[in-house]
Specification:
single chain; 480 residues; alpha/beta; TIM Barrel; eight-stranded parallel beta sheet; seven-stranded mixed beta sheet; 15 helices; 21 strands; binds (2S)-3-(carbamoylamino)-2-methylpropanoic acid; binds zinc ion
């Protein structure tokens, strides 16, 4: 398959220039002016458009079994919807139940993802600890291309990792040259606040944000940062939703600690008034954790992106339809947590980021693709329009307009948190490893065409070898 993208402007995280891009056999093979189309090549007219690295969404949960049900979006429909929005790679999560083998969970998720239409990889969650977890983390890094391990500090009684798990897992991760990531909410406090609110008679979704105030997130973010500081392990905090967690990250980064922060498109644009909607279905459709916050926090998060203290954007795409959310009709604690957006992330960020001047086009590329590729060690294979990179490309039409709606999007869920949002600028073509899979409003995807992306450990990228050497140094024995 050969594709020539003609007449566009290449926009990478570090530079912008007019050039044609030639892709062959899944790879970018030539970038230059006035390239000729080899015979048989497909030509994409990119005149007046931007040719950018395909989006990387570092946080999705396709077909996740969670809170007694299974997320409605699967790997085939979810990667297709992602492509319709310009995203060409997702990083999902293999999440073992406590006492379940990490390897077993990893293979289960690998099986589910075989139907994906575009590329994917997995963070593996550490939800419990014993020597077997220690061993299997090594196997996952050495033999299965996993270089990031997730820890849920929330969800007491289910998949919550306490400090003992965090300390053991963080210590093991740096030995292996892996990054640790956390869902930062204090699960004990959430549990207590949920109980108190329910007992007070507040059973509806309006109680959800009250049970997980920003302080609960700020505490956990800071705790994870301090543990990572002592153990010298690089830390990535997912879905930062508030000023408090951003302040914790900013302080650590100002002191030179290697901490990365992710923000969801939803947390930048949706506020907590949704939980006070009189219609249970609308309020419940927005129940996710951490919850959407007030405008004060949204402004802080935008500043976090602009300042570079937040490096990536994601969606935490974890969809549940109205009949599933109804499980919590009489008890907000039972509403399956999760919302969608994998199709809309890039377009809403372009409109509200680049369109408002908050972000340059290059910063947009950095936060939607390149930074995630670097942090999770697949750059420049992914996250770059450069010769030798995978031909994962989005052709972006800055003049195209649309109104986002669940009626027209491709996500397999009956509610879109961006419903009715009018945006300008969206993907006209999406190319996945050299094949045009989205063009002019139509998907051209193939079940199973997606590939698992191996992510090598960081070796010494994070100083792991130095730390291992320090730990290996014989301790001088005082012979008296
Ligand atoms: O916590 C997560 O990231 C998963 C379980 C999705 N749900 C959510 O509310 N964020
Ligand atoms: Zn989470
Ligand atoms: Zn998540």
């Amino acid at each position: 398959m050969t594709v020539l993208i003609k007449g566009g402007t290449v926009v990478n995280a570090d530079q912008t220039y007019a050039a044609d891009v030639l892709c062959s056999n899944g790879t970018i093979v030539e970038i230059g002016e006035n390239l000729d189309a080899p015979s048989g090549a497909t030509t994409v007219d990119a005149g007046g458009q931007y040719v950018m690295p395909g989006g990387i969404d570092p946080h999705t949960h396709m077909e996740l079994p969670f809170m007694g049900t299974v997320a409605s979006e699967d790997f085939e429909s979810g990667t297709a919807a992602a492509a319709a929005g310009g995203t060409t790679m997702i990083i999902d999560f293999a999440i073992p139940n406590p006492q379940q083998s990490l390897l077993e969970a990893y293979h289960t998720w690998r099986g589910w993802a075989e139907k994906a239409v575009a590329d994917y990889t997995f963070h593996v969650a550490v939800t419990w600890w014993d020597d077997s977890v220690h061993e299997e983390m090594g196997t996952l890094v050495r033999e299965h291309g996993v270089n990031s391990f997730k820890h849920f500090m929330a969800y007491k009684g289910a998949i919550m990792a306490d400090d003992e798990v965090l300390v053991n897992s963080f210590s093991r991760a740096i030995e292996l040259g892996a990054v640790v990531t956390v869902h930062a909410e204090n699960g004990e406090l959430v549990y207590r606040l949920q109980q108190a609110l329910f007992d007070s008679g507040m059973t509806g979704p309006e109680a959800h944000p009250l049970s997980r105030p920003p302080e609960v997130e700020g505490e956990a973010a800071n705790r994870a940062i301090r543990i990572a500081e002592v153990l010298k392990v690089p830390l990535y905090i997912v879905h930062n939703s508030c000023r408090q967690s951003l302040e914790a990250i900013t302080r650590a980064r100002n002191e030179g600690q290697r901490v990365f922060g992710e923000v969801l498109a939803g947390h930048l644009l949706i506020d907590d008034s949704v939980y006070r909607h009189p219609d249970f279905e609308v309020a419940a459709a927005h129940v996710m954790s951490p919850p959407f916050r007030s405008k004060e926090h949204q402004d802080a998060l935008w500043r976090g992106l602009q300042s570079g203290n937040l490096q990536t954007t994601a969606t935490d795409h974890c969809c549940f339809c109205a009949d599933q959310k109804a499980a919590g009709k009489d008890d907000f604690r039972l509403i399956p947590n999760g919302t969608g957006g994998v199709e809309n992330r890039m377009e809403v960020l372009w409109h509200h980021g680049v369109g408002t001047g908050r972000l340059t086009m290059n910063e947009f590329v950095a936060v939607t693709s390149t930074n995630a590729a670097k942090i999770f060690n697949v750059y420049p294979r992914k996250g770059s329009v450069s010769v030798g990179a995978d031909a994962d490309i989005v052709v972006w039409d800055p003049e195209a307009t649309k109104t986002i709606s669940t009626k027209t999007d491709h996500q397999k869920v009956d509610y879109n948190i961006f419903e009715g949002m009018e945006i300008k600028g969206c993907a006209s073509h999406t190319i996945s490893r050299g094949k045009v899979i989205w063009a002019d409003g139509k998907l051209n995807v193939e079940r199973g065409a997606g590939r698992y992306v191996d992510r090598p450990p960081f070796a010494d990228y994070y100083g792991a070898l130095k730390i291992q050497a320090e730990r290996a140094k014989p301790v001088p024995v005082d012979r008296g």
